[in-house]
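The pair is set out directly below:
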Amino acid sequence: MPLNYDNILNNNLVKRTYDVAIVDECDNLFLDTAKNSARIAHPSKSSFNWLYPIIYKYFIDNENNLDTKELKDIILKYENGKYKTEMAKIDDGRLKKLLKSAKIAKNKKLNLDYVIGFNEETKSKQIQIVSLDTGRIQHGSRWSNGIHELIEVKEGLEPETESNVIGSISHPTYFENYKILFGLTGTIGEEIEREEIEQIYKIKCYNIPRNFEEKLNKQKMEIYDNKKEKFNRIIQIIKENKAKRNKSQPILIILENIEETLEFGKLLKTLNYNFFTLNDIQKENEDYILNNVGHPGNILIATNAAGRGTDIIIDENSKNNGGLYVIVGFFPQNSRIEFQAIGRAGRQGNPGTSKIIVSRDEEFIYYNYIFIKKFLEEIEEDEAKMLYLCRELSIKDISRTRIDFFKKEKIYFFNLQKFFLFKEFFMILFQNNLFKYYFDTINSNFGILLNFDYYKNFALIQIDNIWSEFYSDFIKERGNKINNFDYNKDYFLSFLIKFENDWPNTTKEIYGDDYINKIGIDIVNVAIKNIKNKISTINMKLDDPDEAYEKFNDLLVNLSLSDIIK
């Protein structure tokens, strides 16, 4: 689409078109964070903040394995039945979900899955999620389904006010809007991941030759029985390097998580070694660290935060001494993490050294070791080779999960688009003078003096409330495998059924408790019922969401007022 220069010159706001996108570090956005989504929060009408401390006290803290009935009995008796009224509003399904969330919250670990950070805006402590792929803190992100609130209670913090999700879009769904899409990265990954990118994003992968000849010395992987032996070996390398004095190299030690960087840092302190730390919770400025760590003999302990995109400045003396020495102190669970980590050394044709040092008690190796050991006993194979084979199988499984997720995301977003049409339809409907006339006539017949504009604003807010409750529940398992997910089910029809069921109780807030007995009819409820009946008679094949979207749009456009309030 050609640019409208009149709009640009006159500084008019225009809707940006989805023409061309160039995505840098595309493997991170296309693969690592493909299951992430941008979400719009909406205030929740129901709050369970009173319930989380009870679940924590009787489940997480005391390590009890409660079932729904036991939890309900505890809540009803808690402080002489203090929460009986609130309890009546919670069904068994909700309690079951919260108990499931409690198990997840219990297993989340401080300085591994999350840290306790500080929010500068609210001037208070907060639970901050750590990305296991990048080692970076995901500021502003929260776990859903009560997990985040339960961890807040677990760490002695006040649970934040709950919210629903009224709208969301994942990376694959967003990028699909663009007519032309390019991606750039130095670590594209395995062949299965290249095929995945081509399948989801319709992009072919090809390699651009290096600008400089590689001088990186990649040393053989070393495998030890446990973390203690692994740490001792890394310390031995540090000692040997320090013994070279003015010929020593700067060393970057990348560990699996924040907890390990703190643990290894304490170990180096006991040995009187000075070092820098880069784990996203360090006190020093990151630029200061990267500019100063590249001198001979300096040590940097880091998470994957030092892997992607960080440029450690190496001085000339360090280059002459062999460049940066990168030690990856864990087995990377995909080749991209590995290449990003060791790629900190030998950048732009400079010399460098890399070595991977792992231990068999690492989670990935530990759970695959029975398989590895079996093969090592049957055939004479290298243990490291078996590790890479396990990783390849794991990557294939993860890739299949992401592709499955992408298919579900299309359905989620398709239903969200239908809601946008639905909401717009009602906004237009409320502007119809005949609709207002019907409303005034019905209410005057029952002697109710209710302002139409107040009713209209109330109704539009409640439409958002009911949708956000539905949508939050609809997408709650978005990142997990869902065996019973029906790709051809009209989930929006399920929303309309929920709307029809919830609306009578909702309207009590403006009509009063005796509304149903007094009137027995509400104009929005009648409209929803007839729209739902109309939609249920039309077969919308969801194997082509674009076509189904157009059908839904045509249906709403062609609905007459008599169809809605007959």
